[in-house]
Every structure is written in C-alpha cells, then in structure tokens.
C-alpha cells in the first residue's frame, strides 16, 4: 500500500470520493495532481499537499493536454484515477437527449480518453496502474437510473478490454464499484432521519461507506500490493447487491 515516489492524477478531485482518493494517495506517499472543473476544492487539495489544476474532463482535447502537462511537470505518471462523474436520476420515459449526452460525455468518453492518454505515457514507461470509478449500478440498479447504470456498466466493460490492451506493457486497469458513499452531499441528506434510515438499510451493517474507505481501495489497486489485480471490478457495496430483496429482508 505504498505509493512513495509515484505520481498519481485524480479527476474530480475537488470534492467527494475524488478528494478522499487524493488524500489517501498523499498519505501513501504519492505526489498527487488533482483535476476538477470547479476551483472550490482547490484549498482542500492544497491543504493535503496535492497540486490542483482546473480541468473539465468533457473538453477531451484539453483533458488530454492536461494529462501530458502534469506528466511533464512531475517527470512521471504512475497512477491515473478516472473519478469525475455525474449522476442523473430521471423517470425513464422522461429522459431527454441532453441528459443522455451529458451522461455519456462525462461518465464514459472522458474515462476512455483519460485511459488512452495515461495509457500511452505508461506504455512508454513500461509500468502504471489505472483505476476507473464505476458503480454498483453496473451490476444492480433501479428505475430512473437507466442512463447512469449504462455508463457505469460501460466503464466496467471498457476496463476489462483495456486490461488486455495495456497489460502486455505492464499497465493494470481496474474499476471500483461503490454503492452509496458518504460524500458531502450524502452527509447533508443524512441529516434527515428518514434519508439516514433508508441509506443505512442498504447493507447488513447498517453503515455508509466513507470516501476514505474508497481511497484505501484505490491506493491498494494503484500500489504493488494490488499487482494481481487487472481487469477487475472491485465491488465495494458492503453486501448490498448480494441480497435478492433488501426490503423484504428488513421486514422480517
Ligand atoms: N457518491 C456515491 O455514492 C457514488 C457511488 C458509486 C459511484 N460513484 C462514482 O464516484 C465518482 C465520484 O462521485 P462523487 O459522489 O464523489 O461525486 P461529487 O459530485 O461529490 O464530486 C464530483 C467531483 O467531480 C467534479 N466534476 C464533475 N464533473 C466534472 C468534469 N466534467 N470535469 C472535471 N471535474 C468534474 C465535481 O466538480 C466534483 O468536485 C463518480 O464517477 C460517481 O459516479 C459515486
């Protein structure tokens, strides 16, 4: 779980899971460059000693250039975490073309380009590790998440193929599939007891995964400790999707 001497880029690093991953990578000794389209999180990244660059990953050319610049600046690139993503939950029959476009541009195309740009650099170096943020929705989902679930399943599928495209060059590609994670937004929503009870009922422990727990998983996959992992979807749902009917279970 050691990332000493390594340089890791994390997208969407200004808040939520991305910030948790950036913090965990810094704690493991890595130099971290955080990309975010907003600047609000810059202070938090600077506090943990990470570099912050304003990058919108949907500007695919700009994103690619930013990866090349971060690589040049640090002199190396050992880890790439494609975390930036959006969730759109909307009744299936009401989903607009614009919402479809947003989901695929942010959640799928940017991840593909992030993997290509980092993959080319890592291929040259003969080593590297990539972690893509998928979701439990790649496996089990619910109405209103048709678009989101499809993009997260696409990330898992791309990850499997890329493991074989980049594996021969010493580059591993894995996906992390969390269920509900306690980001700032979830934290606020959980102040309402009804929401808290609902979120806690999702898994047998009745607890909610923290961004630090996802950070630890990312560090594992990026470090030599995760050397056996390639093309994996690491399900981090605390058992949620293992049960046939969560609500039936709660009633008994
Ligand atoms: N939070 C959860 O419960 C959960 C569960 C499963 C998977 N995920 C996935 O984890 C990832 C992070 O989720 P989160 O909940 O931390 O999100 P969040 O909304 O809390 O934070 C996302 C961060 O990414 C940035 N971002 C968004 N679009 C961007 C863009 N186009 N370019 C650059 N930065 C951008 C935002 O500014 C923000 O700082 C997403 O891919 C999400 O789908 C989250």
What's this entry about, in short?
The chain is of the alpha/beta class and 252 residues long.
Could you characterize what this model shows?
- It contains nine helices and nine strands.
- With 252 residues, the chain is of the alpha/beta class.
- The chain has one domain (7-238, 246-251): NAD(P)-binding Rossmann-like Domain (Rossmann fold, 3-Layer(aba) Sandwich), CATH 3.40.50.
- α2 (42-47) links the parallel β2 (31-36) and β3 (51-54).
- It has a seven-stranded parallel β-sheet with strand order 3-2-1-4-5-6-9, with helices on both faces. The protein has a two-stranded parallel sheet with strand order 7-8.
- Helices cover 46% and strands 16% of the residues.
- The structure holds nicotinamide-adenine-dinucleotide.
Instruction: Give, in spatial order, the strands making up the sheet with the most strands.
Output: 3-2-1-4-5-6-9
Helical segment count: 9
Integer-rounded radius of gyration: 18 Å
* Overall form: globular
Low-confidence parts, pLDDT < 50 over ≥5 residues? none
Give a list of the ligands. Answer: nicotinamide-adenine-dinucleotide
Number of beta strands:
9
Major sheet characteristics: 7 strands, parallel
What keywords describe this structure?
252 residues, alpha/beta, Rossmann fold, 9 helices, globular, binds nicotinamide-adenine-dinucleotide
């Amino acid at each position: 779980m050691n990332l000493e001497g390594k340089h890791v880029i994390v997208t969407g690093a200004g808040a939520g899971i991305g910030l948790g991953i950036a913090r965990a990578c810094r704690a493991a000794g890595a130099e971290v460059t955080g990309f975010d389209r907003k600047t609000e999180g810059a202070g938090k990244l600077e506090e943990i000693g990470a570099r912050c660059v304003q990058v919108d990953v949907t500007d695919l050319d700009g994103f690619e250039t930013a990866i090349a610049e971060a690589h040049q600046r640090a002199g190396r690139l050992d880890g790439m975490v494609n975390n930036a993503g959006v969730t759109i939950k909307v009744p299936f029959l009401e989903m607009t073309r614009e919402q479809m476009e947003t989901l695929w541009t942010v959640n799928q195309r940017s991840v593909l380009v992030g993997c290509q740009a980092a993959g080319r650099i890592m291929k040259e170096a003969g080593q590297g590790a990539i972690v893509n943020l998928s979701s439990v929705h790649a496996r089990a989902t619910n109405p209103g998440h048709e678009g989101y679930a499809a993009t997260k399943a696409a990330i898992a599928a791309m990850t499997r193929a890329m493991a074989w495209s980049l594996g021969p060059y010493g580059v591993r590609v894995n996906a992390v599939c969390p269920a509900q994670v306690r980001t700032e937004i979830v934290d606020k929503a959980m102040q309402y007891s009804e929401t808290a009870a609902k979120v806690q009922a999702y898994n047998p422990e009745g607890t909610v995964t923290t961004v630090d727990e996802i950070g630890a998983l990312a560090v594992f996959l990026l470090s030599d400790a995760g050397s056996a992992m390639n093309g994996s979807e690491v399900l981090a749902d605390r058992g949620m999707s293992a049960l046939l009917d969560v609500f039936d279970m709660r009633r008994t």
